[in-house]
Design goal:
Strand order of the largest sheet: 1-2
Structural class: mainly alpha
Number of domains: 2
Order of helices and strands: HHHHEEHHHH
Mean pLDDT: 89
Radius of gyration: 20 Å
Low-confidence stretches: 1-10
Helix content: 55-70%
Oligomer: single chain
Length: 203
Amino acid sequence: MLSGDGGSGVDGIDTVPPTLDVSDPELSELISAVESAVAGLAGQASVAWSNPDRRAVIQRMEMLTRSLTAYSYTSLNELIAQHGLDVYPGSVPSSVAWMLRITPRAAGARVRLAAELGGRTAFSGEVLAPLLPRTAQALRAGLLDAKHVQMIREFFRHLPSSVDPQTRDLAEQQLVEQAVKLRPDDFAPVVACLDAMVNPDGD
């Protein structure tokens, strides 16, 4: 684990977080266990694996990657709401870009995904479900690719505000049911068909 003051970047701004240590003992143990498991898997000699095992490992690693990213959305929402990004310069996307060492454009996309697919907290302190709860649940299970999610989000972005909540929920349910079974290129016609049914007059 890295610790210390980090490296110096443009105009003296640190380009890496001041510390990657986790102060909470239980949380630190959990993240260390994940890191150890990844290191252990990376140390395996895959040349000795059978092809069925290779396929299974690749598929499950893909699911884990999707799942870990999805679970981070709630933490990112909380970090933004609780001003945890104030240690970085600029806007929220700029701050996320500094924290994760990604481009501001990619950071902005991450923030928008978190707003729709992560858990949220109301001003009253009430925990709110994601805006697209069924999509978020499937993503956390590692069942959706980023392209699936993009198409589902675009479907709802183009849906008229006059469509009632019950129809919206049913549409999301049907989209997710198909998305977990189909590749994105096969899923696209399903999205178009449902859009024609729910929004026959178009934009």
